[in-house]
Amino acid sequence: MKKFITTILVSASLALGGAASHADEMGISNKDAYELVQAENQNVLFVDVRDPVEIMFIGFTDSVDLNIPYLMVDRNQWDSEKNRFRLYRNPDFIAQIEAALSARGMDKSATVITMCRSGSERGLPSAQFLQEHGFDNARYVINGFQGSSVKQGEKKGLRIKNGWQNSGLPWQAKPNPEKIYRLAP
């Protein structure tokens, strides 16, 4: 009964979410995402869209169904402007999401929730990209896995504010090898 009530409450909060912008409507809190994926009989696919190397160093939650990177790191190209390796969109992202849904007996009408490190560079864009390709119920986890960085004080720059990792939700230091993305040999 508790899971049923939780499902109803989460669904209502999703439906009645802020109308400030399309991005706000697509966002879901980490706690609501967790409750939704824990509820029984939900038509939900929860995807970590970070590059697997990032997961290896930052952490992972086994609550996700799998890891399908939206943006991947090109270790051969340096982005001087951003002072990091260049990122490129996974050319198979849509096909891999469709295959994951199909493997679970779901289709494009399912709720697909994406989560990245902070919610901004890959979380929201991946959900928007999915919606542009017919996944009308694509959502993203606001503040992502690691959350926002503190702007002032002795902990300035540390990502210890909000996010999955800082909300008391389950996570571990290392990824689940059964769920982590691998390039085809």
UniProtKB/TrEMBL annotation:
Keywords: Signal. Residues 1-23 form the signal peptide. Gene3D superfamilies: Rhodanese-like domain. Residues 40-173 form the Rhodanese domain. The keyword rRNA processing does not apply. It comes from the Bacteria. This is Rhodanese-like domain-containing protein.
